């Protein structure tokens, strides 16, 4: 008999989670104004809100927590991280930050000015938020296949080189301080970018003398997809692939709360020392001194160890395999899911799930609410609420994809939890026609509204 797959780790510590009743959940979600960010985590049974900072650290990472050096300047933990950044990412300079958006803030403070344009492949919301906050514009050049959940393409995160070249050609490059390639592309459904696309994007950027940066939050998961899907990479190690990916870019921002398997942290990396020096001023102002950047020494150590663990094939196979396991279960129940499955999450196509409810009634948020009521599972809307309003017209802008994301924390849940989640979603799918109306907004903040907005059932 072929031996079945089993996780390459065993569990040393467990955390109890509590089930609740449907009536309790109906009350709690109403009190939370139908915004799942407002729920107490104790009211959630399986939390798939995000894979960010929700990871289970390893025994070795916990050991780093105990041995962290808390010196203000020049801490040993910083040098440990610096060594890993050089060795694994091949990047000569970096600044630690407290998380990914802080890295964006530091980099963009050094590079962006009003009226600038930042092309990329579907920028993440905080990235777009930081660009628009500076009165600059994020231009999405993702390939069209990314926006059709029924089309199968191995690298749906790819940038469309023609779209990118049109932007580069039709604007003065002085107005384009950088291009950002998000690996994997969260907003397109956790979809990877191929090595070929990375290389060709880098060549194009070089031709126009525009620096190329990674948003590297999920760089290791991207490397896994290159290994298993792209010709010529199957016999390369993940660490070799990661080195090659980073060899094409001028720098990166990273939320270390994802693929560094840490609970907090981030960094911004540079190939150019001058740019690093320029950004250092903002790091000191917003984050902290250059060798800790808003983190405790112990966090830097855990992050350094996490970079090493997340770039191991066995770990990635288990992690991405679990995402696919949930995806397959949903698919078997007839639930419309984005394919191929992403690296960190399964994305449910809410427009196809609720074809009778208009997007203007926040279909994906409605699905998130119904799934929570059904089983205490918390997902997150990646749709109209997240896309926010057009900064010029102030009106909702409707993204092509209206998705419910079920993001899986790393090394936290078992496949029984995945079975439970698929069954709960299956129950909502069965009663979908009895759900007649969506939601409306009662209160919203001027920017990044999805975190704090209040909604009502129509
Ligand atoms: N870039 C990407 C691609 C992200 O997915 C995130 C965060 C960030 C940047 C910002 O990093 O949260 O550390 O400040 N994504 C989380 C998510 C919040 O749930 O997908 P951060």
Walkthrough of the structure:
The protein has 2 domains: 22-51 and 315-457, Alpha-Beta Complex (Aspartate Aminotransferase, domain 1), CATH 3.90.1150; 59-310, 3-Layer(aba) Sandwich (Aspartate Aminotransferase, domain 2), CATH 3.40.640.10. The termini are far apart. The protein has helices at residues 22-31, 59-67, 76-89, 100-111, 125-133, 161-170, 195-207, 219-229, 238-247, 273-286, 297-310, 313-332, 350-353, 363-375, 384-387, 415-430; strands at residues 46-47, 93-97, 117-120, 137-140, 179-182, 212-215, 251-255, 266-270, 345-349, 377-378, 380-382, 403-407, 439-443, 454-457. Strand 5, helix 7 and strand 6 form a beta-alpha-beta unit. Helix 1 (22-31) runs antiparallel to helix 14 (363-375), helix 12 packs parallel to helix 16 (415-430) and helix 14 crosses helix 16. It is an alpha/beta fold. It is built from 16 helices and 14 strands. The structure holds ligand F0G. The site of ligand F0G has 15 residues, from helix 4 and helix 5.
Task: Detail the topology: elements first, then pairings.
Elements: H1 22-31, E1 46-47, H2 59-67, H3 76-89, E2 93-97, H4 100-111, E3 117-120, H5 125-133, E4 137-140, H6 161-170, E5 179-182, H7 195-207, E6 212-215, H8 219-229, H9 238-247, E7 251-255, E8 266-270, H10 273-286, H11 297-310, H12 313-332, E9 345-349, H13 350-353, H14 363-375, E10 377-378, E11 380-382, H15 384-387, E12 403-407, H16 415-430, E13 439-443, E14 454-457
Parallel strand pairs: 1-10, 3-4, 5-6, 6-7
Antiparallel strand pairs: 2-8, 7-8, 9-12, 11-12, 13-14
The chain binds ligand F0G.
């Amino acid at each position: 008999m072929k031996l079945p797959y089993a996780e390459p780790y065993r569990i040393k510590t467990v955390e109890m989670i509590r089930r609740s009743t449907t009536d309790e959940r109906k009350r709690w979600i109403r009190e939370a104004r139908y915004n799942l960010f407002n729920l107490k985590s104790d009211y959630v049974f399986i939390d798939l809100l995000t894979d960010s900072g929700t990871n289970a650290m390893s025994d070795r990472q916990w050991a780093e927590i105990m041995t962290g050096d808390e010196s203000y300047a020049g801490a040993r933990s910083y040098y440990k991280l610096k060594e890993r950044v050089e060795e694994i990412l091949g990047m000569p300079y970096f600044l630690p930050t407290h998380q990914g958006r802080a890295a964006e803030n530091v980099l963009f403070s050094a590079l962006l000015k009003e009226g600038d344009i930042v092309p990329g492949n579907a920028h993440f919301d905080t990235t777009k938020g930081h660009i628009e906050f500076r009165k600059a514009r994020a231009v999405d050049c993702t390939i069209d296949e990314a926006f059709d959940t029924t089309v199968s393409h191995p690298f749906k995160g790819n940038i469309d080189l023609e779209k990118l070249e049109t932007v580069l050609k039709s604007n003065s490059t002085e107005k384009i301080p950088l291009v950002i390639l998000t690996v994997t592309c969260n907003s397109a459904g956790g979809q990877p970018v191929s090595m070929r696309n990375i290389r060709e994007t880098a060549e194009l950027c070089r031709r126009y003398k525009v620096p190329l940066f990674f948003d590297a939050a999920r760089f290791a998961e991207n490397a896994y997809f290159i290994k298993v899907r792209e010709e010529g990479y199957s016999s390369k190690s993940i660490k070799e692939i990661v080195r090659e990916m980073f060899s094409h870019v001028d720098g990166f921002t990273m939320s270390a709360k994802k693929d560094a398997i840490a609970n907090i942290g981030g960094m911004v990396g540079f190939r150019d020392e001058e740019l690093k020096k320029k950004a250092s001023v903002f790091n000191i102002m917003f984050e902290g001194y250059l060798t800790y950047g808003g983190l405790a020494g112990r966090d830097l150590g855990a992050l350094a160890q996490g970079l090493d663990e997340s770039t191991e094939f066995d770990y990635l196979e288990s992690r991405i395999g679990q995402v696919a396991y949930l995806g397959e279960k949903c698919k078997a129940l007839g639930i419309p899911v984005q394919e191929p499955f992403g690296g960190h999450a399964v994305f449910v196509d809410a427009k196809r799930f609720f074809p009778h409810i208009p997007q203007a009634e926040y279909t994906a948020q409605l699905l998130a609410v119904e799934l929570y009521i059904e089983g205490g599972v918390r997902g997150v809307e990646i749709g109209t609420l997240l896309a926010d309003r057009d900064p010029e017209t102030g009106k909702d802008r409707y993204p092509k994809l209206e998705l419910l994301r079920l993001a899986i924390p790393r090394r936290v849940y078992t496949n029984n939890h995945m079975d439970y989640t698929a069954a709960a979603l299956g129950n909502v799918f069965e009663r979908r026609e009895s759900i007649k109306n969506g939601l409306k907004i009662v209160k919203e903040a001027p920017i990044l509204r999805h975190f704090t907005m209040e909604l009502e059932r129509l």
